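Changelog note: in this version the structure field was regenerated for every chain. One regenerated record is shown below for reference.
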Amino acid sequence: MGLAGFASLSLPGMLRLRAESPADPSRKKNAVIMVWQPGGCSHIDTYDPKPNAPVEYGGPFSTIQTKVPGLNFTELLPMQAAIADKFTVLRSMRQTAGGHPAGSMQLLSGDPDTRDKPAPRLPDWMSIANYMRSQNTERNNPLPIYAGVNPPTNYTGPAYLGDAYAPFAVTGDPNSPSFSVPNIGVANPGEAIHLERRASLRQRLDTLERAFDKAGEMDALDEFETQAMTLLTNPKAKEAFDLSQEDDKTRDRYGRNTWGQQLLLARRLVEAGVEILTTSLHGPLCGRVSNWDDHAVNHHVFDALKFRAQAYDQAVSALIEDVYQRGLSERVLVVVTGEFGRTPKVNYQPSTGAGNASAAAGTKQPGRDHWPRAFSNIWAGGGIETGRVIGATDKLGEDSVERICGPGDFLSTIYHHLGIDGRKVFIKDFNGRPTPIIDHGEPIPELIS
């Protein structure tokens, strides 16, 4: 079943036309963990409070000091405030798309289109990094290059690279006692021998097919099945996904909930050799509509933020602390972001339904809408200098006004950490046209080492 699962993936772009520009060999083992806030987090109510703004802008939360002098958060983030010296806050992000699809595609792939599309036109940075890292024949690790623990899947993907460069996706609740990862490990050595025999038989039976293999896809299938066999039979792979290997104190520190255990598993996988790791903080811990899209029709925005704050604050602070305490802070870059912020000015609309963080249908409640003109994200590890603030928004939080950074800068910074010069790498698209992986932006100087 494991082999069938891998082999059934579409292979239209697998191993297509290698990128010609080599990556920086000194950064081959660097890794990135991206923690995604689907729907967009309110910058005003978290990392960029405006205590002097009118109440219809600023919201109800008080401001607290962080460990970094002059850097304040809202009261929702006390744990992150206590370790603010271990990360840098970028307060001046901006993009131009107001919808979730286009906003996500702008930030994750660099597509400048402001129109919402049903599927990405360009591959996201994760798939590109996977594609480029896959060319490294010296890699000797049973784990996949790119894995997602409940990864973001809406509005992202490998586009013309093909499904072979999508993440190895781990879904479900890692906090559940019954949690398991399909296609990882077999129950006993006899099963492993049986699988190896079946794989060998397929290799003997496919010799006639190779005569018709004009696109090289049989070789691609071989490579994919090799990875599948490794994941199924290698004990190191099984161990990396096994959260029971962690002591109770560590699991408690992250939080005994879905998000906490997701981020703990993310750390385990990167520490074991996964190089690209994405994880999405969605689901019941977000509130009624299971994401950060805090329109008044969806959520009471302030109740929703309070509802999810403790789990979010605890999990992210534990991950960042762990990256430093376990000696990963030079190699592993942690990025926490959503596709945009929320409107600084609060509006009121009738709720469309009762639930966690939402009043009964018809009840007028506060919300914040999509806001691409200004938002915040945080960066840790990666050898960067931390305890800093980059950029600023105006007094109401409506516009980024200082050290403005866009999607191209965001992507270039991540690529730089992975040793990829985005301006020099071209990959041929479906039409055979060499396409740069990013054609605008520069690495943000304060976020590179």
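Spot check on this record: The two ends are 44 Å apart (CA to CA). The first helix runs from residue 2 to 7.
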